[in-house]
Design goal:
This protein has 186 residues and is of the alpha+beta class. It has 6 helices and 6 strands; from the N terminus they run ααββββββαααα. It starts with a helix and ends with a helix.
Length: 186
């Protein structure tokens, strides 16, 4: 089955005991609330964890406008940038949609605004539904009980994602062993 915005919203709605929708364009209060919170909630959930299905790599070149002080170069953030994962072995600071650094180029690993839900990890899909449920509960049901429960479960999903990430990434010891200098020390 294909994962879509609507299927994720319907999962969230079922968690709070609401009827499902068939489209964001429906003339219902439920569809209107889903439409209003979906995109911002997606960005928030993607920022909460370094999801592998939302990772991108790029090499940035500096712009000709330099920072007034402290750094030699300014690098514009990619348009789809949500969260920095790694900018290499350099000192940097994010400021006004730019990364300031003294390097001549930046090798950037970042979380992008992945709006193609069909490419999402199953834990991310579940986390998104839970976060939506927590945001939709009070306005749609008048109660916050199911929303608080969804919020707590969301936090557990993020913790689960961290554990899974730890298992799917190369350990630090393995990375050190690739360096003859560091490998000899570990």
């Amino acid at each position: 089955m294909t994962t879509t915005k609507i299927s994720i919203c319907n999962h969230a709605l079922s968690l709070i005991g609401e009827r499902s929708i068939s489209s964001f364009e429906e003339e219902t209060t439920t569809a209107e609330h889903c439409r209003n919170v979906y995109d911002q909630t997606r960005k928030s959930v993607l920022r909460d964890h370094p999801w592998s299905c939302a990772k991108k790599r790029t090499i940035l070149a500096p712009v000709t406008t330099y920072p007034a002080f402290d750094f030699n170069h300014a690098f514009p953030l990619p348009k789809d940038f949500l969260r920095l994962i790694d900018a290499g072995q350099c000192q940097y600071e994010i400021e006004n949609r730019h990364i300031l650094s003294n390097n001549n180029e930046l090798r950037l690993i970042y979380i992008f605004d992945n709006s193609n839900e069909d490419t999402w990890d199953s834990i991310l899909v579940e986390a998104m539904a839970l976060k939506l449920a927590s945001r939709l509960c009070k306005p749609l049901t008048g109660s916050d009980a199911a929303g608080e429960s969804a919020k707590a479960e969301y936090e557990r999903q993020i913790a689960k994602a961290r554990r899974v990430n730890a298992q799917e990434r190369q350990s630090e010891d393995m990375q050190y062993s690739e360096s003859s200098y560091l490998g000899g020390r570990y």
